Amino acid sequence: MSDSIDRVFVKAISTIRALSTRTGAGSLPRPPVEARIMLYGLYKQATEGNVEGVMDRPLGSRPEDENAKRKWDAWKSEEGLSKTEAKRRYISYLIETMKTYATGSNDARELLSELEYLWDQIKDIDPTPTPPMTPRVASHYNTSQYNGSMYGSTAYISGGGGYDDLQSELRDVAIMKREVAMALRKVSLELEKVKKGKESKEWEGFKRMVRFLCNIIGGVLKRLLVDLMVVLMILKFIKFKQGLDLNLNSDGEVVHGLVNKSLLWIFKLLDKCNLIGWKKIHIDVL
């Protein structure tokens, strides 16, 4: 709920700003001082909360001091209202005031219609507490007197009145933008770290998988080479049995060469491994 109120409240401020830029024949009449003072008090309560602890009641007897006292008293009269409730009352009272003083042109009526439409969507929803806004320094409080046309200046109440205080609002918006930007940068950095960590883990997992596959492939290749050597030896043996004869004399002299002797030892090794039957091999020894 508070988010919806905030959006309509910002829309109300932008509407005021649009109307305040109108000059000359397009300018609109100002509301009475009492209405502007009330709007001022609601605006300050909505944006800063209770006046107590923020600033003291102005002193002095000059005209600008009297105007500052009236502003302070209007703010003080709203003490105790939550910021959300103050925004609700501000928007509602602003719409009623605009219906009286801001219907002199098509643009003004269109702005009023847009604001009233947004307000109708949320005005019956139960309010919820509004999170505190960034506090402003009380010394920046503007105490200049009321002057100028209501819509002919850059604010509804010249010098920071309730209708306007646009400079204060713009400062709030700028501060909030900086805070949001900082938060977004922080979130982006955290996401970047998480992404890099995830990519690093994925790369390590990929390397482990490659090593595992290489080990399997290497083992298979080794087994194939061993099997190939065994097959070659068997083929050599078959060829030997079909057309060759291996003979050794009594003193161990190799008759048919070193190759045949090597084959003899290989066959004996295969026999011990139960790969072939040694009794099936007939070798004549002199």
UniProtKB/TrEMBL annotation:
<dbReference type="InterPro" id="IPR014352">
    <property type="entry name" value="FERM/acyl-CoA-bd_prot_sf"/>
</dbReference>
<dbReference type="GO" id="GO:0000062">
    <property type="term" value="F:fatty-acyl-CoA binding"/>
</dbReference>
<protein>
    <submittedName>
        <fullName>Acyl-CoA binding protein</fullName>
    </submittedName>
</protein>
<feature type="domain" description="ACB">
    <location>
        <begin position="5"/>
        <end position="103"/>
    </location>
</feature>
<dbReference type="GO" id="GO:0006631">
    <property type="term" value="P:fatty acid metabolic process"/>
</dbReference>
<dbReference type="InterPro" id="IPR000582">
    <property type="entry name" value="Acyl-CoA-binding_protein"/>
</dbReference>
<keyword id="KW-0446">Lipid-binding</keyword>
<dbReference type="Pfam" id="PF00887">
    <property type="entry name" value="ACBP"/>
</dbReference>
<dbReference type="InterPro" id="IPR035984">
    <property type="entry name" value="Acyl-CoA-binding_sf"/>
</dbReference>
